[in-house]
Amino acid sequence: MPIWDFILLAVGLVSAVNHFYLGIFGLAVPTQSRKARLYFSGILLAGAWWCFWLTVSFSQLIEPEPRMLAMSMLLSGYFGPLIYLYVRTICQPGQHVGPSGQLILLFGSFGTLLTIIFLTMDRMELQAVYTAFLLRDYTRFAFLWFLRYAHSAELLLFILLSVIKLGETYYRTRDKTIKVQILYIALTVAVGTLSLLFANILPVFWHGIQMQRIAPLFSIPGAVLLYISFSNTNKYIHRLEVEKEQERQGIMRDIHDHLGAKLTDAFLLSQKLQQKDTLAPADLDQLGEAVRLGLDMLREKIDLLHDLESMRENFIQGLQIYLVRRYTKVGRTIDFQLADEIGDSLPMSTKEQGNAM
């Protein structure tokens, strides 16, 4: 094959795969827009057809099995990274994929490169590769052996990372409903990846011409199952974000009511103590106890708000505004500083909640 045809095939396959997985991953974005779902579904179907057309048009082979194997390796090469991104999106809905997620998808290049090499071989070369695979002759086509094992290893690696991420989220959450949903997701991912294992890893260890022909077909139900799972993720992520926001609002109301009451008591007590000519140690102890109760309550709420990082700065600012407003009424100024360990753990509230305090 001429070098320009090789480059065209490589660029075309990578672009087609990116369209295919952009469509799948776009369906996992929490949105209620019907147009957006249709848009990403169209991208997915266009990418799949593009992959199929390229493998058929560039292949010089008559037999359909090598084409199926090439399609299977091409698409499933990205399933491992994609499943990990899928699980990460569900476990951390507030975090977008970003550049790091796009780089993760590059790990599927092993399958893409192996597909390109398969499609550029003529019939005699491919028959020699098949013979080497069947005889487990590692001395011939060493680079292809490396790509095939690397492709299988990365798939297993990302599946393992996905299981760890799901397990970590399962044991960290307290909501039984969310735990059931996580188990359902884990089951879906397990069934989907099982089909991929049959399609790609099983032929590596179980050699035979029938396995080489049948195994690639298992990637088709894996792709369909992953498509259904991603399309159903919208409702779950949206519900999880609503519940998280409701929990945050409830904790902030609790902080507003109880912490405000404790600090108001301390403020009124300080006003009362100002009217005395001298302050006894018991008076200072009483004032310190009132402040301590407020801080103890605050520390309890910090643990509940620790994961709500989006509230960090505004909450501290609101607390400062509250204290400054109360103390300036009696003509006093304060220099309010938080300890490092407290300041680093405090989440933020919204500006409105800070002003309300």
Relevant terms:
80% helix, 357 residues, Rhopdopsin 7-helix transmembrane proteins, mainly alpha, 15 helices, disordered C terminus
Report the CATH topology name of the largest domain.
Rhopdopsin 7-helix transmembrane proteins
Helix amount, in percent?
over 70%
Radius of gyration from the alpha-carbon trace, in angstroms: 30 Å
Give the integer mean of the pLDDT values: 63
What's the CATH architecture name of the largest domain?
Up-down Bundle
Shape: elongated
The total beta strand count reads: 0
Strand percentage: under 5%
Structural domain count: 2
Give the end-to-end Cα distance, rounded to a whole number of Å: 72 Å
Summarize the structure in words.
- There is one protein chain.
- With 357 residues, the chain is mostly helical.
- The C terminus is likely disordered.
Quick overview of this protein structure:
By secondary structure, the protein is an all-alpha fold. The protein folds into two domains: 3-233, Up-down Bundle (Rhopdopsin 7-helix transmembrane proteins), CATH 1.20.1070; 245-356. Helices cover 80% and strands 0% of the residues.
